[in-house]
């Protein structure tokens, strides 16, 4: 019989392997299974068999099965620029801000936030854990007052999710880490906490040393109804996180009339940031709109990204779609 092989996560390295066929899920080592946490057991397993690193062809045939319409970071960067350049957005008159999770994977070189920074210049940070705009109205107003006179604002907001080497949702392989790692850790942690019996939000959440995480748990809790009907619970949770972040962002914009003191137009891109391995992240756009000082809103999504993907099968219920894709920019 042939010797068994342990398949290691590739992190972000790119070793060259030829002639390897991906194992079936039943044959895959523990490293290929979702939601891993026992590093010691995995490290022991690595000592028992030779280690191979799978090539790109071993990735699941459809790594974005639960996130249709996802595109590479470079494609999204180019699409944003192409759409906004026609509206007069330039590096000299535009100030970029992002509301993405604090996780370092979201700021990797040559991925979306890095590309947008290089494209538009300086950036303002609005987001905290899970991409929620914890800077609030005060932070948004401060950002807007930094814009060039009669300039333009560009905001990108997104929760993030890991898609593992085997296509599992909610975990990624990080460079130098033997076991899989949760992403988004805040979203996964909140979901696990809320799934425990006896949890009584919001009274159980009042830790002044963990304000962001408690906020996420309180806002996520009412959105979890229907999770069992969805084909993948972590994909469902990710879409609920997106809805949460979008609601907060749109509410803050509408409640901050002062942002128009120096700004002539605002562009907002919302979506899901998908972390993978080897600098192969992607972004699923779910909203792309502009709003002028006069209150004119323009939906740039169809002309930039095409038809909105069908999300009802992924959410388990058509009634869950509107909170994700509905709503839009509005003046106070």
UniProtKB/TrEMBL annotation:
Pfam families found in the cross-reference section: LCIB_C_CA
InterPro entries named in the record: LCIB/C_CA
Limiting CO2-inducible protein B/C beta carbonyic anhydrase domain sequence ranges: 72-290
Coiled-coil annotated spans: none
Disordered, as annotated region: 12-31
Protein name (database record): Limiting CO2-inducible protein B/C beta carbonyic anhydrase domain-containing protein
Organism the protein comes from: Favella ehrenbergii
